[in-house]
Design goal:
The protein is mainly α. The protein has one domain. Helices cover 77% and strands 0% of the residues. The protein has 10 helices and no strands. The longest helix is centred in the C-terminal third of the chain and has 33 residues. The radius of gyration is 21 Å and the shape is elongated. It starts with a helix and ends in an 8-residue tail after the last helix.
């Protein structure tokens, strides 16, 4: 086996890839969001629902596939985070990160299934009540997703701080992110910014969570590269 093949197959190579997969998740998620389009609000008319789910059927199915792919990167990121925390003796925070990421992925996968099913056949079946109910359920699931997302951020923030990977400033920013994302689970107003389909639930807290994931993934990747360089043997030249 050549030296190049050995380098390619080193476990540390895959470790760096998984640690940077949080950034890949954010990029793929944003792309899928633009492809998918703007989902109708709660209580949207039958005509609006039909126009979106039937008229944009191809876009929705493509966006759903991209989002499902993005979630794989999220799970890899959470696995890398948990591995780093376990190596630092933070097993409880590692377990919390694994459980939280699984819950987040499950909720979002359910939203993907609902949207894809509506676009594929349900919206075109003529049953407006079922279409409206599933669309509203999809919106409400995003509110519920705020709780495990906040748990994932909390596990990563507190675990990395106790492992002395992040600074006090980064820790404070992480705690603020936990609180702001957790507030997303209280958006039960009938309308306005604080409604399930309002700006806070639809945009603000998800953006905060995406920023934290990208930054945490970058920190994990940077530390992985630094650790590899620190352990690399130094060649000695003998005249």
């Amino acid at each position: 086996m050549s030296a190049q093949e050995r380098t390619t197959m080193e476990p540390s190579t895959f470790d760096r890839i998984w640690r940077g997969s949080g950034i890949a998740f954010v990029v793929t998620f944003v792309v899928s969001w633009f492809v998918y389009g703007s989902q109708p609000d709660i209580g949207a008319s039958a005509a609006t629902l039909a126009s979106f789910y039937e008229g944009d059927r191809t876009r929705i199915l493509l966006g759903s596939s991209l989002l499902a792919l993005a979630l794989l990167n999220l799970l890899w990121f959470a696995a890398a985070l948990a591995s780093r925390l376990r190596d630092a003796g933070q097993g409880i925070w590692a377990a919390a990160a694994t459980a939280a990421s699984t819950a987040v992925a499950t909720i979002i996968y359910v939203r993907i299934f609902i949207g894809a099913a509506l676009a594929y056949s349900i919206a075109g079946s003529g049953n407006d009540a079922v279409t409206a109910g599933l669309n509203d359920l999809s919106r409400v699931l995003l509110v519920v997703a705020a709780f495990p997302t906040a748990m994932l951020i909390m596990a990563g923030t507190f675990g990395l701080q106790q492992a002395r990977v992040i600074s006090k400033g980064s820790f404070a920013a992480g705690v603020a992110a936990v609180i702001l994302v957790l507030l997303g689970g209280t958006t039960w107003a009938n309308d306005g910014v604080w409604a399930p389909d309002g700006a806070y639930s639809r945009l603000i807290w998800p953006v905060i969570a995406l920023c934290w994931i990208a930054i945490a993934s970058g920190i994990l990747y940077t530390h992985s590269v630094a650790a590899r360089r620190a352990t690399r043997p130094t060649s000695v030249s003998i005249a």
